[in-house]
Recover the amino acids of this structure.
């Protein structure tokens, strides 16, 4: 792992800066688009690392709506599964973005639980090309995960995998109020 790992909620939540494709967890979450047929950013990185079978598996899923998620094997990845979550495009904040973003975290956690995933890693969904501001996105992500861990058994470890120092700092600052 790249850099410092910061732990919250009795070690059940970690925040780190890394490339999500190299993490040794049971499932990684992809910030996908509705087509589920690949794209740029973390989506492109995951498809490159998983190999062409991932695209083949995604073709059979028939896409996913914003706020929803679907699961495939991880193929060449360390992770057994990829959960393709479709976050919202930011349109200023009054187009239901918060509920849609929360929804895709919850949906990803539901799918993970159903597949007996113990350790899952999330990227900062929607905060790249989709333009969701990092601080409110981090708050939604962390609240959704906290609520899940406090109410559901199964998932033991959640990793928030940030890709920049700025995102990492923001996640840690938000965690000091949401996860402490
Ligand atoms: P979206 O379209 O949902 O905004 P992006 O892929 O553009 O998706 O960005 C989502 C987040 O993923 C951003 O914070 C971006 O910096 C991050 N990211 C890009 N590549 C990687 C990677 N290899 N590992 C982890 N995070 C990544």
């Amino acid at each position: 792992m790249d850099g410092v790992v910061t732990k919250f909620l009795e070690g059940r939540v970690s925040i780190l800066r890394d490339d999500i494709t190299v993490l040794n967890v049971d499932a990684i979450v992809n910030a996908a688009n509705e087509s589920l047929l690949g794209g740029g950013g973390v989506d492109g990185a995951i498809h490159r690392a998983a190999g062409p079978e991932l695209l083949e598996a995604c073709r059979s899923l028939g896409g996913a709506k914003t706020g929803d998620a679907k699961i495939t094997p991880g193929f060449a990845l360390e992770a057994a599964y990829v959960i393709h979550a479709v976050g919202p495009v930011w349109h200023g904040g009054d187009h239901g973005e918060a509920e849609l973003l929360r929804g895709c975290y919850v949906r990803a956690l539901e799918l993970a639980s159903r597949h007996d995933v113990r350790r899952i890693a999330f990227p900062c969904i929607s905060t790249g090309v989709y333009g969701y501001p990092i601080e409110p996105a981090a708050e939604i992500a962390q609240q959704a995960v906290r609520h899940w861990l406090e109410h559901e058994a199964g998932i033991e470890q959640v990793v928030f995998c940030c890709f920049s120092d700025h995102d990492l700092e923001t996640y840690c600052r938000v965690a000091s109020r949401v996860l402490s």
Notes: Residues 95 and 172 are 27 Å apart (CA to CA). DSSP finds five helices and seven strands in the chain. The chain has a mean pLDDT of 96. The first strand starts at residue 6 and ends at 8.
